[in-house]
Amino acid sequence: MYRDIPEELRTLIEPIVRDHGLELMDADLVRGRGPWQLRVVVDTPSGDGRVSVEQCAQVSRELGTALDAGDVIDHRYLLEVSSPGLDRPLSRERDFAAADGCDVKIETRVPVDGRRRFHGRLVDFDGETARVSVDGREYAIPFAQVVKANLIYRFSRADFAARRDGSPEPK
Question: Which residue of 43, 77, 96, 155 could cross-link 125, Cys pair, CB 3.0 to 4.6 Å?
Answer without folding.
Answer: 96
